[in-house]
Amino acid sequence: MAAWQRIAALFSLLRLGLLLLLLSPRSSGIPLDTCPGDRSCQPRKPPVVIIPGDLGNQLEAKLDKPSVVHYICYKKTDSFFTLWLNMELLVPVAIDCWVDNIRLIYNKTTHSSSSPPGVDIRVPGFGKTYSVEYLDPSKRSVGMYFFTIVQALVEWGYTRDNDIRAAPYDWRKAPNENKEYFLALQKLIEEMAENAGEPVVLIAHSMGNLYTLYFLNQQPQAWKDRYIKSFISLGPPWAGVAKTLRVIISGKRWSWCQWAWVASPTPFSFCSWREQNRSLPAFPGKVQNGIRNPFFFIFYLQLGFLVLCHGFFFSLPAGDNNHIPVISSLKIRFQQRSASTTSWLLPYAQFWPKDQVLVRTPTTNYTVLDYERLYSDINFKEGWLMRQDTMPLVADLTPPGVAVHCMYGSGVATEEAFHYSDKFPDEEPLLVHGDGDGTVNLRSAIQCRRWVGKQKQPVTLMELPGNEHVNMLLNYTTVAYIKSVLFSP
Ligand SMILES: *[C@@H]1O[C@H](CO)[C@@H](O)[C@H](O)[C@H]1NC(C)=O
Ligand SMILES: *[C@@H]1O[C@H](CO)[C@@H](O)[C@H](O)[C@H]1NC(C)=O
Asked: Does a structural domain hold residue 25?
């Protein structure tokens, strides 16, 4: 979900995953239910389709660019390489190449966005599960996303890519720019339902819920009655996410040490290569990751940072960048702004108190009603066009017309408002926290309750106290609840 911020959450997971890997290589995470006897699992098994959130599936790129931003960037690649998630591309300097490949260019005439010239981006694995199970295709300790849930389903008798599949999409774009996706999703659901003789259960996370709601709002009721059993909604940002305001205004500032740390799995990939008996000279040409000679350059750089910075992470309070050189947040902000989904996710006026100051500067207070001025004041007028393009997509929260199970985390400090000094917007603001799952504000997640009684199908709300936005996917309660929904009559 919520744009760049989620990466931070993701990466803390990744780090944990790395530690677990080191401590107990065979640990498979949480205990999973298994069937007492195979027979009890056999009957009625609705097919499952997963709709991931923002940043929640892999993206691949192929390059043939007229120019590049830096010497080390590739201009041309022979084949597609993983652009997201690929840790090797997120280190200092290489990140410039990455930003220049993943950014979108907005056309004010057509109200649509496209990749820079010579960059071809595709979404791998539609109808399969791999691209949402692990965001990093090497699966090396990192980027685990839907794996726990998919693996649990497999243990209950499901088969990957057969009766459990995922519908990944280009999460940089809002539904108005992803029309073909919804046709493909419809076809996928019909095909799976007909093969199984059972309607489908949709499981969405984060922004995937808005995608799913948009999709269901477009379908006739008869189609939904026939093909959809229920919609399991995890961490839904129905009314937007306050954090995206900060993402758009000031970007996320990471220290060199933080970058080095998140990229630190690369040295470990060296070990896995050794285990596979690959010879060293193969390294420089290993893959075309969009940068020249990726391995040697990055490996030594990272090793250095790792050694230098390792200690900082345990001694510094979060967000304290004192004494650490800081990578320009402007580059990251530039990328974040270019995705129309970022503007799509700003808090919605219908559901937010209109007098609540979300952004405060010494001269101005901005509420949900002041976005046009805000975009103008941060010198990002295109953003206001993007907001207007995307705002009507699901703003009314029209009931989905299928059974809904709405699961959301609470009790985790979640950004709610931002106070800037006169350096606005190019600085980190003071944060005001409220209730939520660390990303999605509670106010936004619980909006599904407005559907109770507004549609004939049941709407169930389930609060997961203390559950963080991404961690909830690993939670035993979540997995057990999904099972109860799947195997209910
Ligand atoms: C925007 O799209 C229009 C119509 O396709 C095209 O003529 C125009 O050159 C585009 N503008 C930019 C800046 O690419
Ligand atoms: C790597 O090579 C060694 C010796 O040549 C061999 O014993 C080992 O089985 C090989 N490992 C793999 C994973 O092939």
From this structure: no
The reply to whether 27 falls in a domain is no
Residue 477 lies in a domain: yes
pTM of the full structure: 0.79
- Residues 287, 373: one domain? no
Q: What would the mean pLDDT of 12-25 be, rounded to a whole number? A: 35
pLDDT at 138: 76
- Which domain, by its residues, includes 141? 41-54+123-251+332-486
Residue 111 is among the residues annotated as catalytic for this protein: no
The residue whose CA has the least distance to atom 12 of ligand 1 is: 107
Share of the chain above pLDDT 70, in %: 73
- The atom of ligand 2 lying closest to the CA of 276 is 13
SS3 labels along the chain: CCCCHHHHHHHHHHHHHHHHHHHCCCCCCCCCCCCCCHHHHCCCCCCEEEECCCCCCCEEEEEECCCCCCCCECCECCCCEEEECCHHHCCCCHHHHHHHHHCCEEECCCCEEECCCCEEEECCCCCCCHHHHECCCCCCCCCECCHHHHHHHHHCCCCECCCEEECCCCCCCCHHHCHHHHHHHHHHHHHHHHHHCCCEEEEEECHHHHHHHHHHHHCCHHHHHHHEEEEEEECCCCCCCCHHHHHHHCCCCCEHHHHHHHCCHHHHHHHHHHHCCCCHHHHHHCCCCCECCHHHHHHHHHHHHHHHHCCHHHHCCCCCCCCCCECCHHHHHHHHHHCHHHHHCCCCCCCCCCCCCCEECCCCEECCCCHHHHHHHCCCHHHHHHHHHHCCCCCCCCCCCCCEEEEEEECECEEEEEECCCCCCCCCCEEEEECEECCCEHHHHHHHHHHCCCCCCCEEEEEEECCCCCHHHHCHHHHHHHHHHHCCC
User: From the CA of 277, how far away is ligand 2's center (Å)?
Assistant: 6
Pocket (CB within 6 angstroms of ligand 2): 276-277
